[in-house]
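As described in the Methods, two query proteins were run sequentially through the folding procedure within a single session, without resetting any intermediate state between them. The first query and its resulting structure tokens are shown here.
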Amino acid sequence: MKLPGPRTRTRPRTARAALGALLAAVLLALLPAPAGAAPAASASAAGGWNKEGCVPAPAHPRPVVLVHGTFADGTTNWLGLAPYLAARGYCVHSFDYGRLPGVPLLGGLAPIEESADELAAQVDRVLAASGASEVDLVGHSQGGLMPRYYLKHHPDAAGKVNAFVAIAPSTNGTTLLGLTKLLDLVPALDRAIAGNAPALAQQVAGSGFLRELNADGYTVPGVTYTVIATRYDEVVTPYRSQFIDEPGVRNVLLQDLCPLNISEHATIGLLDRMAFHETANALDPAGAEPTTCWSFLS
């Protein structure tokens, strides 16, 4: 077969490059980025979480470990929820995971399997420091997916976790409103993302990682699962792909509780006090109170 000349090749390559640049820009624009690492220690201290030597009170006997999302970190992702839970008497702990060499401010980019190892170490640290026998996990976005790998693949993990609350999780990956189809048109971009930010590629709907993780079920015995989602999520799409259709899982759509709620992917984890209220309900079912439009005042 005769190879096309230079002029024939130029336009398709230019088009593919443009599509690649467009998708990369959208990926970076849609997924929340951290506000910066400098105020991390002071922010958590002022908010009452990551307190050294925190001993859980009888009313809330399990420490809460917060698991941030892609491009985020253990402080900026939790400037709303962590103080909310700490003010209600919980021992709350957050941490950074998934950092890549040469990318100091962005977390959640490393292979999810490696990030699960970091979560395992954090859970063990919190248990040892608190004297508790179990923790509760709360995650946002990738933080609502990665712990499921930990629970399924780490020995005794399920015995260390009582409840897992996943806020806007990438349970079945994302189509990014259909934009991930462009990866089929730009294989070089697909390879570049997989090579330089593996967790992004693993969260694309239909990825090999997700097929393996979900093949034999989504949950493990002994752990209580809650999924909290918003219909206006523009990052993990379609939004109903976040839910887990298995016995015992509580799937919560915020707009079913309050049609006026307009949270999207970032704000449901950062600011939404209805989501915070539902999280507290999941952590303390015995003391749960109905979440309504007025819960933003709670």
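Immediately afterward, the second query was submitted; its sequence and tokens are:
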Amino acid sequence: MSASPSAFDRAYDELRARWPDPAGTRDVDTPYGPTRVYVHGPADGSPLVLLPGGSATGLVWYANAPALGRRYRVHAVDLLGDAGRTERRGVPLKGADDLTAWLDALLDGLGLTRTHLCGHSYGAWLAARYALHAPRRVDRLALVDPTQVFAGFRPGYLLRALPSMIRPSEARARAFLAWETGGRPLDETWQRVHALADTVPGRKLIAGGRPRAAGLRMPVLVLLAEHSRTHDAAKVAEKARAVLPRAEVTMLPGATHHSLPLAGPEKLNEHLIHFLG
């Protein structure tokens, strides 16, 4: 007899129903296990791979996919090692190099020799690392409130996050989200997914050092949340411009780190579409 679905699985399936029609789901084989990818947009559209932040799952892009899918073939990914429907099987996940090798295999499985790449938060850190690892496969790179790319975390942010890291629970994760977003309204189903992700057995997010962003040679867009409590957005913008003088660096007014990419998706979509061309 199969086990009953967990609270996380029930919330995830509910959020899955938000993915725009026609809904496309792919489980792509990689040496690290099958990777869940949600697809939307014309089959002949320019490919755009979306990497979420930690605990967010690829479904967090559901509010962005309808607009982006008018022009691009969107591929939203459940990250290896995180909660979601990507499974860890086969080659063990040990370090950041495994993540770039996994993305190589994923793009191969999707048939993408070259793609636009966009990541938020932890996904932006991974996107930057991958763009340095395989620059010929990345056409344009978009980093949405990236963490551990141009600056570290604020100590106060880490202190606030500590209780839910040491003793994960839905209540602690919700309290942390409410603090970081300043009580901004967030989609209730997504909040449950995010808050329950820390309780998923076997979840293993791989950390690593800052990528050498100065080595990025493709066009880069950096979108920063004006009121992010993860870091000082103004200082991150200054560092990003110093490291990548040709990059587009833009502030998203009123946004916080964890309210992205769901809250106010129109403005984020507008910047992305303009940048990707």
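The beta strands are 24-28, 35-40, 46-51, 72-77, 115-120, 138-144, 220-225, 248-252. We note this only descriptively and draw no conclusion about the first query from it.
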